[in-house]
Amino acid sequence: MKSVSDLSAVDGASVVVVGGGFGGLSTACYLAGAGADVTLLEKNEQLGGRASRLERDGFRFDMGPSWYLMPDVFEDFFGHFDRTPSDYYGLTRLDPHYRIFFKDGDSVDMVPDVEANKETFESYEPGAGEQFEKYLKKSEKNYEVGMEHFVYTDRTELSDFATWDVMKNARGLSLVGSMQDHVERYFSHPKLQQIMQYTLVFLGGAPNNTPALYNLMSHVDFNMGVYYPDGGLGGVVDAMVELGEELGVDFRVNAPATEIRGREGGFVVRTENQEFYSDYVVSDADYRHTEMDLLPEGKRQYDEDYWDTRTYAPSAYLLYLGVEGDVPNLEHHTLVLPTDWNDHFEKIFDDPAWPDDPAYYLCVPSKTDDDVAPDGHSNLFALVPIAAGLDDTPERREEYRNLVLDDIAEHTGEDLRDRIVFEESFCVNDFAERYNSTRGTALGLAHTLRQTALLRPPHHSEEVPGLYFTGSFTTPGIGVPMCLISGRLTAEEMAERVA
C-alpha cells in the first residue's frame, strides 16, 4: 500500500463535503479516518454521483461508469483503513474482457490470456505480436513510474517537476507527443491502433489530443484485467458509503447546496432548507458550477471566459434497455467501431455534431449478474460519446434512438427493436440537470495536452482559504480510480495547509 501523508492536522476539524461522487466519498473517508467531523451533502436522492443506479420493473442499471479497472487503486484505498475490497464486495474477472465489432463485418475478443491476444495481433499484421509484447512492457513501466511519481504525487508547481527524483524517474516515459503518435510507432494496422486507443473514451479524449503517457492504460487493460464487482459499480458506492459510516461520516441526500459563504472562522453551506457550518469545505460538485453558481462573484478563481475556453470531455447519449430473451452475440462489454473513427472524434472535439456513423459501447451486465434483470430478460445499455453542449431535444433523441438500434442490429446481429420491455434515455440535458454538469459533459475536463497535471484546476481555492476541490476536474483526472486518488490528494493538501 502506498503511504498517505500525515493527515493528523485535520483531527477535530469540521468539514462539509459538497457532492457524493467517488471524489467526494473518497475525500470524506480520508478526512473522517483522520478524525475530522465530516458531513457530506448530496444533491440527488442517492449517493455515487454519476455512478447512480436506475432501478425499474425488475431491471437495475449502473447509469454511469461500468468498468472496474485498476484494482490496485481500490486495494490501496481500502487498505488505508485496514480493510480490503473483499470485506465489502467480490470481484469476477471477465472473460473475454470485451468484444469488438468492426463495422466492416470483422469482430475480435480481447481475453485475459496475453499470449492469446498476442496471436490475435499477429493475425492482423506480421510482427504485431512481438510489437504488442513490447508495447505492454512500455505500458507497464509507464504505469508503475507514472502512478508512483505523477499520479499519487500531486505536483502543483512547475518547480515540482524540476527535481532529480522526477527527472530520474521520467527518463524514458512517454511525456511528449500524442497517443496517436505513440501507437503508430508500434502498429500500422488501423484496427490494432483502435484496440490500443479505445480506453481514451474513459479519459474523455481523442488519439490526437491525449498525451502519450496514457498508453499506461494498456497495462491496466491487458495485464491487470477487467472485473465486475458484486452489485456493479453501484456496489462499490455502497461499500464506500458503508466504510464512511463506520468512520463517522454524516451522509445527507436530497440536499443540494445552493450557496457557499465564508463566515468568521469558517464557512456556511446553504441548502434549500438548512444551513451547515464548518471550518472547511470540499466541493466534489462540478468545478465551474461551484465557482460560478455557489460562490460570490468576488471569490472566484476563474471567470466565464476561462470556462468557455476549456476542452470538455464528451457527453453521452445513453439508452437503457430491458429486453426479452438473451443477446448471445454480445458480451458483458462490447464495442462497436467504424473502421475509421476519426470522423466521430472530429464531431466531438473539432466540429461538434451528432455523429452519423458512431462508435459506441454496449454493456450487458446480465451476462454476469443474474440480479440485474428479471428471469428470461437481458439488461443492457448503449452509450454513444457525443460532444458536450449539443442541442438535446426529444425529436433528436428519437431520431438517434432509431439510428443506434438499427446500427446494433446491422453490426452485431442483435435486433432488439421488437423485444424492448423497458426503455429510458439519458443525454446532455440530463447530465446538466442531474449533476450540474458544465455543457452536460459526462466526465469533466478532457485529458488534453494542455489540461494535464498542473494545468488542471487546483485542489485548493486560491481566492478562498479553506475551500478545496476534488473529483474529475482536478488532478489526477477522469475515471473512478483517478477520483479515488483525487480524494486522497485533496485530504493531503488540506492537512498540509492546516498544519
UniProtKB/TrEMBL annotation:
Q: What are this entry's molecular-function GO terms?
A: oxidoreductase activity
UniProt entry tagged with the keyword Nucleotide-binding: no
Q: Where is the Amine oxidase domain?
A: 23-494
Name the Enzyme Commission number(s) assigned to this protein: 1.-.-.-
Superkingdom of the source? Answer: Archaea
Enzyme class comes to oxidoreductase
**Could you tell me which pathway this protein works in?**
Carotenoid biosynthesis
Q: Kindly provide the name given to this protein in its UniProt entry.
A: Phytoene desaturase family protein
Report the source organism: Halogeometricum luteum
Q: Which gene encodes it?
A: crtI
